[in-house]
Amino acid sequence: IQFTPDLMPTDVTGTDIIEEDITTGHRRWTFVPGPIFTNVLLADEVNRTPPKTQAALLEAMQEHSVTVRGTTHALSPPFFVLATQNPIELEGTYPLPEAQLDRFLFNVLLDYLSTEDEMEVVDRNTTRMELPQPEACTSAQEIIRFQWLVRQVPLSLQVRRRAVELVRATRPIEPGAPEIVRRYVRYGASVRATQFLCLAAKARALMQGRYHVIDEDVHALALPVLRHRVLTNYQAESDNKDVDEILREVVAR
Fold this sequence. Notes:
- The protein is an alpha+beta fold.
- Helices cover 42% and strands 14% of the residues.
């Protein structure tokens, strides 16, 4: 979905319309699903649409359902949302609320392409008339089975405690919070961050060929899981301290 300033919530979720039976003449409400009824939703430039439309994703991302006119419609699994936003061009944008940011598993920063990748992009878009057609490499059922497998990966008490301590260290109100957090952080990460950090660590362990989680899995994923959940204060902006620098110091403790 291309998110634009004039996009309405019903353009995302769908809406009820009045449909007339041509044989009987009776009218009834019929739900017409929106583009959110899919397995993978790409919200392109999600911060270009007003908060009212952004909020249309909240229920779907948490409960995997959509409620329209009091009726709840379940989304078919698997379902997850990918979103992009341009941090450079801020005019005409609407910052995402913290409640919605917290529903995203990762915040991945994309830098410029490497020389080789940029050469390939130029070649594809200046010399070829047709782009290669994508081919399916998996199925919805395989993804669901893998999601189930991730949750079966054992997490030792030591690693779980490390994940909890790491997230709690981002909260300035915690007694054991490091000095850099108390000085520069306004709000720390929530309990949802701890859950996502543990789930992501389990998935990384499987991708590394292990059926157990180690501290390295937690540390490697701390920045993408936490950077959009930790809100810095004015002092951090004044001292030119970004959230990644703060998190690196927290992880290094």
